[in-house]
Design brief:
The complex is a heterodimer of chains A (264) and B (613). Chain A has 264 residues and is mainly alpha-helical. Chain A is built from twelve helices and no strands. Chain A has one domain. The radius of gyration of chain A is 19 Å and the shape is globular. By secondary structure, chain B is an alpha/beta fold. Chain B contains 21 helices and 17 strands. The chains are: A mainly alpha (264), B alpha/beta (613). At the A-B interface, helix 6, helix 7, helix 9, helix 10 and helix 11 of A face helix 3, helix 5, strand 5, helix 12 and helix 13 of B.
Amino acid sequence: MGHVRLGRIPATRQWKQVIEYLKLGDISVTQLATAVADASEKSLIKATSDPVFLEALCMLGKLPQMVKEHGVQAGLAKVGIQVSANPSAVEILTGVNSAIETVQRTPGAKTTDLGEMAKQAAVHALSEAINDFGPQLWTPNNTDVHTTVASFAAPEKFGELAYRFFANVAERNLKYYTDRMIPHYLGSDRVKSVGDMAGFDNALGLHCKEAALIMRPFAKDWHGKLVFQSKKPIDAKNVKGFADVSFKKINKEFAIRGNANGTA
Amino acid sequence: MEPRNFLCGGVTVPGLVKQVDLDIQGTNQNIELKIECISKATAKNIPPVLLDLLEVAAYVYCADQRTRRGGDTLANMGESWRRDMRFTIPVRELAIWNTQEVKDALIETLGFLSDDAYSFDFVSPTKAFTEVQGYFDFEDADFTPDEVALFSGGVDSFSGAVQDLIGNKKKMVLVGHHSANQVVNVQKELVEQLRQRGLKDEFLYIPVTIHNKGQQAAEYTQRARSFLFACLGMVVAKTYKKNAFTFYENGVVGLNLPITKDVMGGRATRTTHPKVIRGFERIFSAVLQEPITISTPYQWDTKKEVILKLQANGVPELLGLTNSCTRPRTWIGNIRHCGVCSQCVDRRFGVLAAGIEAHDDASKYGVDLLTGARNDDQEFTMGAGYVRFAQEFRALPKKNFITEFPEITAAAKHLPGLTPDAAVDKIYELYQRHSGDVMGVIQKGLVEHQEELAARTLPPSSILAMNFNQSKLEPAPVADTMAQVKSFMDNLQAPVLEFFVDEMNQSIIFKGGFALTGADYNLVLALLPNFRTGKRNNAEIAYVRAPDLADALSMQEPSMRQAIGRTRAKVQEQLTVDLGIPFGPDDFIENKDRAGYRLAPALREVAGVADFR
């Protein structure tokens, strides 16, 4: 019981290149992350074909809108989340997880690890945004949480949510590979100890957050245009187009950062 | 992944492709199920619907082993890991099995347990069912228990059995399922030791055998195994007219938060995850149409705390006979624990944290926990990942728990008697204690082995060596760097779409270098005079009627409309990425019913590429 199954790194030319970087040891996190991003480039793009990914992103767009328009309990019910009359942040986040999970378990859904990443990233983004945008001078009560969630219906706040979501998906995607690889190079010049692994992880996370910053204004404008100007719904079709472009932008940002550091 | 159809118990479905036949009875039997030591008298308590349950569980368990999940490289983002499992199963109590509640409970619980998608079609049988005695080796065992518990032979289940038998003075039935001979020997040895300690009449051990007959398993992960295990517990509990049974497993393993980021979903087992346990209760309650309870008394204990129960009950010397290793095939000679699988690592950390390693012979481990070389990639990753998880969790503030481990939200509403908020707090505290146990073992080990570490005589791939080395880290970013960058980006002016008409090279050039040429260029050129006139006179930009535009381009009108669609799409796709401008259909070339086409008024023409802002 309690078994954990680990993965191995694919034996392709690009991944061998990444491993060479690790052996050399004297390259920066940005350079290494760029090499990993190159090797896994196509994987992020695949996310937009995963129904769980699309559901997770739709959820971030629709949930605040519904809460703002219908109140917290009725609003959440409209996105498939059943909660008590006065739910806490944890109860709402638990509901988000369950609602996305339902899509994941649909026969024929053809979902991948990217769907699982997106599910976790959606909960991460909402949790982090509730923490950051709730009242800071006192401990928020449930009403404060509901107000904060409803505020994410504004384009600017959706930009925040989307940024956190995409940054987290990108980070999970990179770590999906590096976590299989980095421990094996413990003791090299690059990663000398378990403590260095944590340092590397933090640097990788920051790298993804910086690369995804481009999403803040882009997501804000997209949301404003779709919801307020065109009066169109936040659905899988519209979200897919948005996500396709978003990943291209993030990959481009990774490439720009890599060029600036002399990798690509 | 393509659906996999399992036709069970001799049923047929015309036209179904990619089917696998499974049968637990009759001439085509390819699954063997045997439950020992049940008395004939108690077996009469088993209702037909429970025999159905037993068969459903056996089919799911064997189908799980016959369907591959893809390789270790997780090709195509692990698309083969999650399978689409479709069952057609004959049952005795069709009306019960076809209720929506039973099907929903099965699909949701098994889906989460094994990380697959399931569907069930329950049908009438095409042949007679096996009678109850077909699955039992009866013994004249007259026994009246207080409780029924599942018994694997691992340290958690043995500690639980000892606590209930000795500490709580209960009469117990212990149900032991095994799929490897080495495991049944572990169970039997532990049972024998309990008998020798005067507990012979206090418990009944019921071993259960189930396996694919005449076929090797294609998949070894066995994520659906605990459903079978739970069903066996339910069936045995019911033979003693009980509506409850017990799973002994510590809470850390039950929740099993991922130790690395490639361990996604069910790649970390969910055997006794609270959502799974509540799901089993839901399935059994719906099938039996009465409330069923599964208790997990060690939900809030760490491994160390569970191990200490052996000492508290006066039998710490039996610790060394327990076994949780997932690789019994690696046992050679005296070696009884591989020392590198997640269970062995977890067990040994727990033993050392509890401080009763004198009762757990280190020489029986293939690799020493702290000082042994971990040469295989995955062995190394497991050791490093386990320690790193504990290090990082120790430093994690409570308010960031869900943000860093969103997986925990799957458990929060499934812990009886606790609100989701209280459950998350309690889980956080459990993991803090666990992480403290692990780091305590590391710290003690660093002191004990300081001379070897200083002399660098420990293998570099040992857990202690990988914690001892130090090097410079990436410089930490300035605290408010992100806030400054965000503020800068938010204050940037909204981008405006600028273009330059390069008549010499016959192209329309946009900022970033993207250019329209050929037919696209001609289209823009045809719309340009009205655009320039409107801008020059600060007036409305006039539309060009569709027939006039078609004439100007020497095209038929339908072809022209298609060409405009292609140009718009081209600009939209490229410039959205290059410039970060979310495009609508009318943002470059506007179209108005009956009025025609024009270049969008918000566009700005510049005199040369040097003028791009």
